[in-house]
């Protein structure tokens, strides 16, 4: 009887089987497939990540309003439950698909593959993937995006880049949002940038207020230049 | 918690190997996990039995080989130890080094009965 699970199969000896297998190999394969499609169709795909409540959805609605006359824009929304964010995006007229992850705390490349298959994205367009609100897990999972963007709001504290170094290390751009609230909160913008540069010296930085339309032009310029 | 997702990937890889090599029971799975990979070892070990409950690995033990973080500082022309992404180079005090080791997330081997 097998000493491990009690089954009746007879085995002559322990066997060691080499795998040498990357745990994220399947996700990486799916991500590269997504990436190939984006390149083939000249689609700029942005993986937008942040804590819950940093302003991702509001920033996206303002972005779509600013850019939709120049570029076709589509959005994939990721949340554990509800389609609240997808409904807000839909009001802008952009194509949107909501993924509900259930208990999972991040989107993965397989989910994105199914989403983009369903959405029939146009050539020369922009795709935003608004990831599940979480400064930890989403950074580990390549979705095939062109660039990773991390959003932080001034109500969160300038030490976030040090507290969540993995996310900020792997991002290409950090957007500091809600800067209209700076007079009312203890947030040191220069310190936040200095902390972020420790974790990622080549991280690009932008500052916005999505609700007050501050910094949106510079943000849109950055997007279309990628 | 992303460690559960990682466990699901481990189970998938082990199951695929089980089909290929024709075995039904896995007793040990050896992993190499880098200190900079963003993975909590205890969460991984905790999650694994749940992720593996209906698989050939349901009674398997995870053995984790920790890989230390290292970087190369171009200014100092030296390899340095890196425990966190915000660590400064001990030589020049700057952060412009390249990570060379410590991001590994690998299944090395497994033992079957």
Describe, in plain words, how this protein is organized in 3D.
The complex is a heterodimer of chains A (226) and B (113). In chain A, strand 3, helix 3 and strand 4 form a beta-alpha-beta unit. Chain A is globular and about 65 Å long. Chain A has a 7-stranded parallel beta sheet, with helices on both faces. Chain A has 226 residues and is an alpha/beta fold. In chain A, 34% of the residues lie in helices and 22% in strands. Chain A is built from 8 helices and 8 strands. In chain A, helix 1 runs parallel beside helix 4 (109-119) and helix 2 (56-67) crosses helix 8 (216-224). The radius of gyration of chain B is 17 Å and the shape is elongated. Chain B starts with a helix and ends with a strand. Chain B is of the alpha+beta class and 113 residues long. A 3-stranded mixed beta sheet of chain B has the order 2-1-6, covered by helices on one side. In chain B, strands 4-3-5 form a 3-stranded antiparallel beta sheet, with no helix packed on it. In chain B, helix 1 packs across helix 2 (41-51). In chain B, a hairpin with a 4-residue loop joins strand 3 (70-73) and strand 4. Chain B contains 2 helices and 6 strands, in the order αβαβββββ. The chains are: A alpha/beta (226), B alpha+beta (113). The interface between A and B is large, with 42 and 39 residues.
């Amino acid at each position: 009887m097998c000493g491990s699970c009690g089954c009746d199969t007879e085995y002559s000896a322990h066997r060691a089987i080499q795998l040498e297998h990357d745990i994220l190999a399947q996700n990486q394969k799916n991500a590269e497939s997504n990436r190939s499609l984006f390149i083939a169709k000249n689609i700029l795909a942005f993986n937008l990540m942040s804590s819950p409540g940093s302003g991702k959805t509001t920033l996206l609605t303002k972005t779509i309003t600013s850019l939709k006359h120049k570029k076709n824009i589509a959005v994939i929304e990721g949340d554990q439950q509800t389609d609240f964010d997808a409904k807000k995006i839909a009001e802008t007229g952009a194509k949107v698909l909501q993924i509900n992850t259930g208990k999972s705390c991040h989107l993965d490349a397989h989910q994105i593959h199914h989403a983009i298959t369903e959405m029939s994205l146009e050539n020369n367009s922009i795709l935003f993937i608004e990831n599940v609100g979480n400064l930890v897990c989403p950074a580990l999972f390549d979705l095939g995006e062109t660039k990773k963007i991390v959003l932080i709001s001034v109500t969160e504290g300038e030490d976030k880049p040090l507290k969540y170094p993995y996310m900020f290390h792997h991002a290409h751009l950090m957007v500091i949002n809600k800067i209209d609230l700076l007079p009312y909160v203890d947030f040191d913008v220069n310190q936040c940038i200095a902390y972020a540069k420790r974790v990622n010296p080549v991280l690009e930085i932008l500052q916005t207020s999505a609700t007050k339309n501050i910094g949106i032009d510079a943000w849109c310029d950055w997007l279309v230049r990628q | 918690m992303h460690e559960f997702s990682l466990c699901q990937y481990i189970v998938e890889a082990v199951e695929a190997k089980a089909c290929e090599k024709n075995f039904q029971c896995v007793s040990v799975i050896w992993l190499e996990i880098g200190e900079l990979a963003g993975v909590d070892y205890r969460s991984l070990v905790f999650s694994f039995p749940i992720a593996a409950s209906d698989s050939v690995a349901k009674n398997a033990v995870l053995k984790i080989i920790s890989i230390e973080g290292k970087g190369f500082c171009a200014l100092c022309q030296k390899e340095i130890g890196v425990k966190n992404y915000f660590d400064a180079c001990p030589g020049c005090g700057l952060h412009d080094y390249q990570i060379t080791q410590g991001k590994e997330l690998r299944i090395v081997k497994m033992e079957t009965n």
